[in-house]
Amino acid sequence: MYRRLVSSSPVAVLRYAAFTSDAVGGNPAGVVLTADELADDAMLGIAADVGYSETAFLSSFVGGEGVLRYFSPLAEVAFCGHATIATAVAIAERHGAGPMRFQTPAGTVDVVTRREGDEIIAALVSPPASSAPMTEAELDDLRSAFGWAVDDLDPRFPPHVGSAGNRHPLIGLRDRERLARFDYDYDALADVMARREWTTVHVFHRRAEGVFDVRNAFPPGGVREDPATGAAAAAFGAYLRDRGSLPQGSEVVLHQGVDMGVPCRLVISAVPDSTAISVAGAAHTIGPDRTRR
Fold first, then answer.
1. What is the predicted pLDDT for the residue at 95?
2. Same CATH fold assignment for domains 2-119 and 130-274
3. Local confidence band at 291 (pLDDT 50, 70, 90 cut-offs)
4. How far apart are CA 123 and CA 281, in angstroms?
5. What DSSP designation does 74 have?
6. CATH class, range 130-274
7. What pLDDT is recorded for position 118?
8. What is the rounded CA–CA span in Å between residue 262 and residue 153?
9. 191-221 pLDDT per residue, tens
10. Domain boundaries of the chain, sorted by first residue
11. Residue 127 and residue 79 in contact, taking contact as beta carbons nearer than 8 Å
12. Measured in whole angstroms, how far is the alpha carbon of residue 253 from the centre of its chain?
């Protein structure tokens, strides 16, 4: 429990795992539903104490609309998909499922929640999402940090940098075994990502038509890997959409966190008449003993 800077009322920090149908898998996020009186340094301090890759802070929430901000233990983040899903599910559990809208540093994010049996599914509409070919210099930096040979890359998926509020390199690997190893020079990659202003590195392998195994390196968040990354999933969705691999009315399933022992499932689809991508998944409450992986 944390104290507001102005009010003497305690501020509750909720803990959820997003993009999972149980409390074992998923990506942990902190959620504060009453952040109206918290200053920036207080939110950063809470996020650092919680210790997850991101904690979401909701303020001015009236009539299904509010302001949502995200902090990692190190800094504010413009947009975080899994923390948005966690926040939406937390609201729906308390006030009922339905549409909601958040103003975030990356722009307006709409979310629709619905109940399916005993769980709540949240589908967010990302900020405008796009991708562009990666430069040779950018790719050389990544290959050096990861130790990839040219033959490690999947020639069916040219390297791109995608964006949906944050920038994410998108790299396809030819072999699932190479993805499973996922070894890289942490300090070297952290330096590259800081210079390039990248948030995660989204590495993927095509398992089957419409199904991918993915992993996300996350040195800017202070961890080697993120278990589930909604913002990167949206950027990847834009990449697939622009390549004709995510047509209107179709869905692509991303399996993330499997190699970390915290399986996550993210479902992405193109939003009609928009450049946004929908990212959907469930979320469940977890105890304070659950640490980030």
1. 94
2. yes
3. low
4. 7
5. S
6. alpha beta
7. 87
8. 25
9. 999 999 999 999 999 999 999 999 999 998 7
10. 2-119, 130-274
11. yes
12. 14
Number of residues assigned to the chain: 293
Q: Please tell me the CATH superfamily of domain 2-119, with its number.
A: Diaminopimelate Epimerase; Chain A, domain 1 (3.10.310.10)
Sign (positive or negative) of CA dihedral 65, 235, 278, 180: negative
Token pair, residue 147, equals: 């130790």
Residue 9 pLDDT more than 60?
no
Residue 197's nearest CA partner among 166, 219, 235 is: 166
Tokens of 275: 């450049």
Summarised one tens digit per residue, pLDDT across range 144-189 is 999 999 999 999 999 999 999 889 999 999 999 999 999 999 999 9
Query: Which residues have CB under 8 Å from 196's CB, separation 6+?
Result: 138, 141, 167, 169
Locate tokens 């929430």: which residue?
61
CA pair distance 149, 13, nearest whole angstrom:
44
Separation of alpha carbons 215 and 204, rounded Å: 6
